[in-house]
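Field: COMPLEX_INPUT
Field: COMPONENT_COUNT = two
Field: RESIDUE_TOTAL = 258
Field: MODE = joint
Values follow.
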Amino acid sequence: MSISPEQTSLSRTFDDDRWTRARTRPVRRRAALAEVALLAALVAATVAAATTDDGWPAWSFVAWTVGMLAFIPLHSVLNAGIRGLFDRSGRSLDEHQQRLRDRSVVAVAWPATALHLAAWIGGVTVVGVSGHVVPALCLGFLLWFAAGLLPYWHLAWTAPDEPADADLDG
Amino acid sequence: MGRQPKGEADRVHDRIAVLRADRGVSRRELAEAVGVHPQTIGYVERGEYSPSLALALRMARFFDLPVEAIFSLDPLPSLSQELLRRTS
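Field: COMPLEX_OUTPUT
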């Protein structure tokens, strides 16, 4: 029986050498910061939309569409930078990778709980104050989404630089 | 499962890089033999990750050496120094 981590199609994708540049600490950190900024901007846009008369003006729809489309390549870079540790099967990770993943999940447990709570409170508050349901749902979704992304950001920010490729062959 | 050392005093020292060079084994080859990713071997060599007991034992078996010849809680003397000490 093999003791090596299982090779899945996802693990092969994330371990591809074409992502080497994304795995450097500056790129990982920039991607994490960009995602935080994007989600913060969407939260601000959603709150601003809730203050309008119709609650869901055309510009907020455009902002959401652009934001979500921008999120796709951004998260691809960030996820490649951390070798997709949160998206891969646990069987494809070795003990060090599992350790990195678990450490980030534990580190953000309390902030993630707070964001989940904020999602409920924020949504209920928006409905209570403005009477608009759509922005309330959007705000709740964004904060819940951010709670799920916290471990990704933590790992992207804190993971050590990987040994250089030249070392791997030596 | 292994862990990341909290500081220099908590570090597990090793001779993996020296042994690899001596035996002409690449990180990738060692990683495949002991069931981890090549990067993990690099982290262990850099002292940024203390391997689990199972991984340390698999490495010892790979190099056909007792585990205490590869890993130590104290800084390991260089192999040449040790050879000199034994022959003098």
